[in-house]
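Posting here for the record, re: dinuclear copper ion.
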Amino acid sequence: MKMHRSEEIWLIISVTVLVLSMVVTGYQTFALGMGPPSNTETIDPQKVDETAPFDEPGVYKVGDNEYEVVMTLQIFSFTPGDIEIPAGAEVTFTMTSKDVVHGFQIAGTNVNAMVMPGHIQKITQTFDEPGEYLILCNEYCGAGHQAMATTITVK
Ligand code: CUA
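Prediction output follows.
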């Protein structure tokens, strides 16, 4: 059976596009380090209370207007809760779960993460607008899931 010339051309074009996109994706992932982070930091979920920095959850000033919030998530709360920071602060949340998978969503921002037992999750967000921001758990984690919430007050 003989192929049409145009069929051949399109076959070559589609294979070329396929190979090129694999090469580009591979280059970005391995040469440029643009691949998604994969479980870079882990922790023993049974020993969160004894493992730094989670042995002392809290809000820490780490720079001019930079803060680190070391936070544990557990059924059905965030520790620490009711956080206060000054306007314009850049806040890095370092989080882990002590039991099941929880969610960490800050209403009115793009912050939306899964926090899993055994893994350390880090997210940085700058809070320019003063106000009260609601933190919600958006992964179903049990009977008290709906009540798992707290706030960040920016002033
Ligand atoms: Cu924690 Cu839902």
